[in-house]
């Protein structure tokens, strides 16, 4: 395979082709004229054809030199752009970041972080994917996503988990429900109530967290209906089929046909954590973590 001419010699030719003056080009490149001449001669020898016509009075490009200049000037612009693009990736200012999120982070935490992250890092391509908490753990372990918003706490030696929020839980009831007459809602008020919850396929982690909280108070929830998404849960509640339990982040999205009351108990909270692999030290991940820290509440 034929050896390609050195990049330094090509860059020297491009500079000379712009000036068409050995003295000025040598000064611009901080070379003496003999060194400049040697580079051009070496380039022409490696190519096997002349690039310049030289007389004692002027320097001009041959037709081959004109073609070589046009093509390589474009190549050098692309080369410079590739260096800048690679530098942005190395500095965490470009590249790809894959972010997973679950429903409770989709209302405020993730969108707010995305807005600020896009403003600070416009060259990073961010791909968002809704994945339930248990699925995120698998996706992170397999390297399918880089970072994820999930229900916490999460403690694993292979992962770093940063708590972003700890929000109180609320009951959502139909209008005029008897529970709304009580001055405050405590966990024991839900004994015997018809409870509507997300199904185990989509809401598994949240269901386990709720079960742990209510079991700690000696309460078994009477789950009478299940649905896969928030819209269906809201519709079932509004129709008078029961009540449901939401974290505070979803309260503003429930519509006009349900009422909400906070469950007054310090342990009845939902935590959102941001999780990534300890071995993933990419600048894109670290940049996103810094933005997410600024958005998160860090409540205990």
For this structure, the quaternary state is single chain
Biggest pleated sheet: 7 strands, mixed
State the shape: rod-shaped
In total, how many beta strands? 11
Task: Give the termini separation.
Answer: 65 Å
Q: Indicate the low-confidence ranges by residue numbers.
A: none
GO molecular function: DNA binding; DNA-binding transcription factor activity
Domain HTH lysR-type: 5-62
Protein name: LysR family transcriptional regulator
Family: Belongs to the LysR transcriptional regulatory family.
Overview of the structural elements:
The protein has 300 residues and is of the alpha/beta class. The protein folds into three domains: 7-90, Winged helix-like DNA-binding domain superfamily/Winged helix DNA-binding domain (Arc Repressor Mutant, subunit A), CATH 1.10.10.10; 95-160 and 275-295, 3-Layer(aba) Sandwich (D-Maltodextrin-Binding Protein, domain 2); 164-270, 3-Layer(aba) Sandwich (D-Maltodextrin-Binding Protein, domain 2). The chain is 41% helix and 24% strand. The chain is built from nine helices and eleven strands. The strands form three sheets. Strands 3, 4, 5, 6, 9, 10 and 11 form a seven-stranded mixed sheet that branches. Strands 1-2 form a two-stranded antiparallel ribbon. Helix 1 packs across helix 3 (33-47), helix 2 packs across helix 3 and helix 5 packs across helix 9 (283-295). The protein starts with 6 loop residues before the first helix and ends in a 5-residue tail after the last helix. The model has no long low-confidence stretch (mean pLDDT 91).
